[in-house]
Amino acid sequence: MYSNDEFINIIRRRLSEARFVHSMNVANAAAELAKKYGADEEKAYTAGILHDIMKEESLDIQYEYISRNNEIMTVLERSKSQVVHQMSGAAYCRIELGIGDEEILSAIRYHTTGKRDMTLLQKIVYTADFISAERSYPDVEIMREKAHNSLEEAMLYSLKYTINDLASKAMLIHPDTLECYNSILENFMEKE
Prior knowledge:
This protein is mainly alpha-helical. Helices cover 71% and strands 0% of the residues.
């Protein structure tokens, strides 16, 4: 497998300056969260570097990688271009970069939608994407504070925000996102 320095050089060539900066910020946030919550910092950093590797690629090329990775896209996924890059990114990392570590690949694969019963590394990369240093959306400081108190609270907050935002615009909501939300709520209910 390549080193993280090599991965950084790869994304520097593949991404715009703004997307490159974002990817590095996510990598740093993911490593910090991994340290705090006891996950593998190196894997978190790697997944953060690579999470958006296909974000600026044409949809046709993204679809090709997804197909080569033996995944079948749903109608919803084809209609929501903003979730395609997580699928094609994991595929590209497996096919072109030779990454075989399923933890890293799945953290990339679900960093946008989330999914039911996420692993610690998946939660970390998902959350790091929301709190990266350049982010400036409303409530980002609340999200950062929650991320440093509880990954589950941070994820619940971000999922509510995402679901409400999409519903208010009458946009489709990926079932993985709804399953992620329900899964986290169920975990909270079990703890009570």
